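Hey, can you fold this one?
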Amino acid sequence: MPPSTDLSAEFTIAQQRVRLLQQQPQAFPHPVDPMEPVECIETHISWVLLAGDFAYKFKKPLQLDFLDFSTQALRHAACEEELRINRRTAPGLYLGLVGLVDGAAKDASATLRLVSWQDAPPGAEPAVRMRRFAQEALLATALDAHRVSPAQIDQLARHVAQFHAAAAVASGADTWGTAVAVRAPVDDCLAALLAPVTGALPGHGPLLAQVADWCRQQGQALAAAFEARRPAGRVRECHGDLHLANIALIDGEAQLFDALEFNPALRWIDCVADIAFVVMDLAAHGRADLAWRFLNRWLEHAGDYAGLVVLRYYGCYRALVRARVAALRMDPAGGGSGSVQAAQTMEEYLELAGGFAGQRPARWPMARPATLWLAHGFSGAGKSSHALALACQRGMVRVRADVERKRLFGLAPDAVSDGIPGGIYTAEATLRTHQRLAQVAREVLAAGYSVIVDATLLDRDARTLFLALADSAQVPCHILSFEAPLPVLRERVRQRALAGGGASEADVAVLDAQWARAHPLQPHEEAITLHVDTTAPVDWDRLLPP
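Sure. Predicted structure:
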């Protein structure tokens, strides 16, 4: 990243000091093996030195259209802010501030040393001190190496949802999250991409123009939705830069780091704008199935199904952000392997932005037209696991009765309901649960997504409610009847109860009561039903050809 002309001299000295620091292991306030080189990871706005068990992040002296690190005071303030916002999710990684001190302010060859910020003299260069982790722990790296499990994606979704739930909420006096504030960074990205796309990818100029037109149209069409999200408490102090290289697997669990510190307008955003980065980047890495798994699991914890209406817009924006970052890494003079790779990355993300905007085949599949699916069957039949697998494979939203029932009582999906007076499985609670499921399904369909309602739906009136919903929404409706013999169901329910920790609390007594009271499917329901035998592996490509 080249600095502006008036910062070029300071940039050069700062860069030289970083290079010199790599060669001076004695400058660090802890042992550094002189036989192991100090590594430097360079981003478009920072240098990160990896020394021994620690990492040191220096802000580059830059002034760009979206940040200002032009003075030592501004860089210090940015370091302080970086500590504050990242200790929300990774307190064990962010240790404090240090100052880089040398003997002569203008002599890059002077002996350097790093001291705690409290002991640093005026003029010292600030840096954030972090606990180091292996680069293989980055989620982006682990994903490309096929080392990420579905369970880790589930944990990531829970971690992000809990972070959002605890994050500060924008007040009515704030301008964060207004329609104008939402559209501004999108317009900035599109404007910033015009020159690099014209220069390096001239054949993609029409695609950029199409994406820009779509963003303008959607920005206007969604204005009321953006504004409604603010009073609903959905605009919060989020992460702001939640792509896969800013998530690390520490001790096997995903942890968010490197939140966006330099511009609060890019951090005080809709929570859906935050998770759209994860969804988009999982798709960019060729794992649309995990993108849908993450989305479904986050929705289960957050309950923000109404936010799906703005997801495609934010997904497109996040792809444009990564394209813009790639453009910043290109050499203005052209040529060089780095510029070629940056241009390829820019092209990939621009294509993905086109997919979200409907201008290219999407890498995260969406079933079209939007369809209502009903996952019907007794407890233990495998509805939840198979419905989730189908949702991830085909690009759908699953809404689960066990989760929504608990949400009505203020319980988390994996919480135990023993303390609720009268219990949560009364006839009234079941009616309210079905009404909640219908409301969510209506929101998902209105946003243009297919939805799978995961509930027993053994009662004829319950099924009638959803068949009527499909009629009113003018979408096709299909029933997936998940089936297994009663002894198999009983054993599955017994094993599930012993394992604990899941959303379902149905035991064998509940299953037996279901079996006694179930209403068989009627002829008009059988006409739209696919029977799924869950005693054998379920092959959705065979049962439901794409």
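DSSP finds 19 helices and 17 strands in the chain. Let me know if you want another pass with a different chain boundary.
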